Amino acid sequence: MSTHKHFNLICCVVLAFTLLLMVFFLNAERFGVKQASTVMGYEDKLFSTSTVHTIDIRMDDWDEFIEGCESEEYSPCTVVIDDETYPNVAIRAKGNTSLTQVKAYGNDRYSFKIEFDRFNSSNTYYGLDKLCLNNIIQDNTYMKDYLTYQMMGQTGVASPLCSYVYITVNGEDWGLYLAVEGIEESFLQRNYGKNYGELYKPDSINMGGGHGNGEKFAMDQFQPNAIAENRSQADNPPSQAAGSQKSQQPTPPDSLQNRPAQETPPEQQSIPGNPPSDNTDNAQVPTPNGQNSDHPDGMHSSDDVLLKYIDDDADSYTNIFDNAKTEPSSKDKRRLIQSLKKLSQGKNISQVVDIDAVIRYFVVHNFVLNFDSYTGSMIHNYYLYEEDGQLQMLPWDYNLAFGGFQSMADATALVNYPIDSPVSDGNVKDRPMLAWIFADEEYTALYHSYFSEFLAAYFDNGYLETMIDQVSTMIAPYVEQDPTKFCTYEEFKKGVSTLKSFCLLRAESISGQLDGTIGSTAAAQDSTTLIDAGDLQIDDMGGMNTGRGNTMENRNPEAAPTMPQPQDNTADKMPPTERHRPYEEGQHLEPMAQKNLLSKENKFLLTISIVVLALGLAFAFRYPRRK
Question: Does the global pTM surpass 0.90?
Fold first, then answer.
């Protein structure tokens, strides 16, 4: 045993140093050490975007399963993904109004949800627990969901991975689908680590729902509103300032390289009762069913799905908490309610909103014009992520994007839809998650800055055009042979062409809105300055009132082609996953609102360490070294 006279002091110093070292390693990222990304294993398997994958669903009673799809009950099956077999997994139909629409079309082409771990908790696909197979209904382009998720993810939003899959059932052709990572546990671990927060999918029972939601929603009572009629109110006010195909990925513009970190804008103390005049122009825009958004019987009369603060009672937020994807405790619910309260008051925004992530979400969301969402009349199709009181919006279900929810509207009105008053029904102040952006000039400026970066990344070098062309080339043979598709092959080709034209015109209009030559709000827009969409037809891309389909029974078996085989030059035509990225790795700005220094797990470990240190010190002083 050591007899050094300062033995006790040395022990105390060593224990204290060890404690400090542990704190450093637990929070190394806060001191400039980059955290290793969470790799689940499935990212570059099924979700590689360089090819069309294959899934064979094997089930003895498939016809009986299809007959009962509207019940959304799980059934056991075996799936073979790219020649790898996964037995005893669960499958059910999924969808909102698409469930009844598929049946109305006389088509069996439902969307499906696969749960690898439902019957056996140890089953996963390389770590993936839930997989959605989207039937691409009301989308003649086959690309609306795909492009939106790609743009969301590449722009810095936590977005589900996706890829194209050609599905067969017991070896027989079924159709080309989009495989989408389920936003559940695996998604949360991949994006936020194992100590992730709480996840919700706010939705009202009066709206499209799926699996328990939407029973009371009657599609025949809903009529798409003509945006052109709403926009005509803004044609006359004076304009106000708003502030070649390639085989390789376009080089990111210089403005996206080595971007300096942004300073946190000052806090907006309160959102005024009357929002800025630029966002009051659509305060009484008629809803699709002819009601005003503030009508008590309107389609989004539930304030909780609008993310409004109601009161402190968790029972007032059933459309949120009843649709929780995690298991929030009472404490978690109270924390979310307090965040919604601050959000509605416009107070301490950076404490309750991940500023960077939410603005980036709305940049892409407002570009693609999805009104079957938080910015439309339905107020659904989004996920809400909360961690330590801070909120994020996560994207979901964009098959009616690019104006598809309003496909009968004037194309020019949609191309020029104002980025600073992006709500198609009601007004911005009724959307607290959006209102704070336009309630403060510096947040609005940041929103405009991110929009400029987005346009530069996707359009300055023709990146989006190239991506659309490459995806179209890759999936075209599968679309042509798809026996259950909702459109003809000719309609697919026309839809892709229209999509590309729409995106180019939309980018041109937003550039004008950003430089002030076109109004960025409905009130500021002048019809003489708008970008002319010409004879562009929005419904060529598919929409609410488009779609048909073939059943397996009415197919001509003699005409059924064999599944296309990948060509040797596929890699040349379709760049690998890493090329589908206009932003370089590490290029995104760091979130401006800092999260709590210690996670829940780290706090626990730190507490244990302090207790051990205290016991050690007490023991050292209680039993000092004998002289």
Answer: no
